[in-house]
Amino acid sequence: MNRNTRIAIAAALALVALGYWKFRDKPAAADTAQTTRGQYRIAANADAFRFGTLDFSACELEREHSAATIKAWCAPFQVPENRADANGRKLDLKFALIASAQAADDDFIVYLAGGPGQSAIDTWPQMADALGPARKRRHVLLLDQRGTGASNPLKCKSAEDEDALPFDLERAAVSTQRCLDEVARFADPRFYTTSDAVEDLEALRQALGAPKFDLVGVSYGTRVAQQYLKRHPEGVRSIVLDSVVPNELVLGAEFADNLDDALKAQFANCAKSPACAKAFPDPYADLIRLRAALAKSPREIRYADPVTFKQTTETLDAESMVSLVRMFAYAPETAALIPNTIKQSLAGDDAPLLGQIGILSQGIEELVGSGMQLSVICSEDADRLGPEPSTADSLLGNRLVEVSKRQCQVWPHGTRPPDFNEPVTGATPILVLEGELDPVTPPRYGEQVLKTLANAKLIVARGQGHNIIGRGCLPKLVGNFMDTLDAKALDAGCVDELGPIPHFIDFNGAAP
Fold first, then answer.
1. φ, ψ (nearest 5 deg) of residue 476
2. pLDDT tens by residue, 227-244
3. Cα atoms in the 13 Å half-sphere on the side-chain side of 360
4. Domain count of the chain?
């Protein structure tokens, strides 16, 4: 399986950057804006300290593609793989504390990464600035969810090393079985679900001395946040849900429709510009034409990798092209390139499209060969996932649904609580963020989640895509929200300054 196809499968299944369970009958009352200080202060000259039962020492977090490191505090933390088996395998979970520069309040920000399968520690550099105002007086906890990062990762080397034979459902089954054979040597995949991760997070909170958490979930991380809120509302002070999915929705069920809707909305903006409309009369039709051409005749392309600058040869087929376009659609900066990039490919120049893979796939490639992703999908979604006749002719089609179903016939399934798909309810302060042109989690998801929440606000950022917490004035608003716990009182007028980026007419930009 060539690199493009492997990344395409991971990208199409991942949210990158979901949501469940209703509250207990009597949810915990929300904290006031006044928080206590002192319990979690770190002395300026400390070289070690204890929070609760955890002994911290200084550590350095590596940054991908950089020699720089991030100063943090780390401590050993162990949990049972199977909580029903006290004598079974133990997991050493990697977590880090990013200390507040000021005297810290006694609530902790907890960043919950996307995927499923991303590492909170590895993706923290992309989130740090977005949470800058909020973390001035709060420590940040980064816990690599079990099966990710350095927490007994369910990473399959065989999936990375497969050859470039054509990809089909049976090859997916064979690859999945090979991955399972690897993982089974050191893990039981049944116990790497979101529910298991929720209990790990609560165990960490108790080990710290039971502080309140300000949960910040991005994409799949919103699923973890909402599940934690259901099971442990007493541990939650506030929640930010960036690119949320309603509990009722099945992961992957609406990927095809959401992508088509986002692309057509983006192309409608192109039609409003005379120059863009003249250059690209029907960008969506161009996409369908290119997909058909690549399905009939995949192309071997040689190009310079924009990250490593090395000459690279890849095979561009229909599946990888569609998933690359989906990755382009995640952010307005790359969405603006789609019409011209596709036009170039139709003319025989695939370098503009393929040349972006090294940049677009950052944060996605780690999901290639991720058994944890399969543990989540197969346990929580696959039994309700099925091909939809109405989406068969969409750009993405039903291919990824079929792949998921076939993989989950091989991969072991964990358990799913009976109330897993019930909408979340309650009065916990919650801020929901959505991008107007998100190809994965559109604004209607945020609207649906808000229907059963008593103390929540939805902010939709015009012209934006997936994972918007770092855009414009949103970091400041998130900081204000955590300080006041009053989402409804936030003045979000500054978000209106955001908007779509004009489509590039050529490689010089939007102007003719």
1. -65, -40
2. 999 999 999 999 999 999
3. 29
4. 1
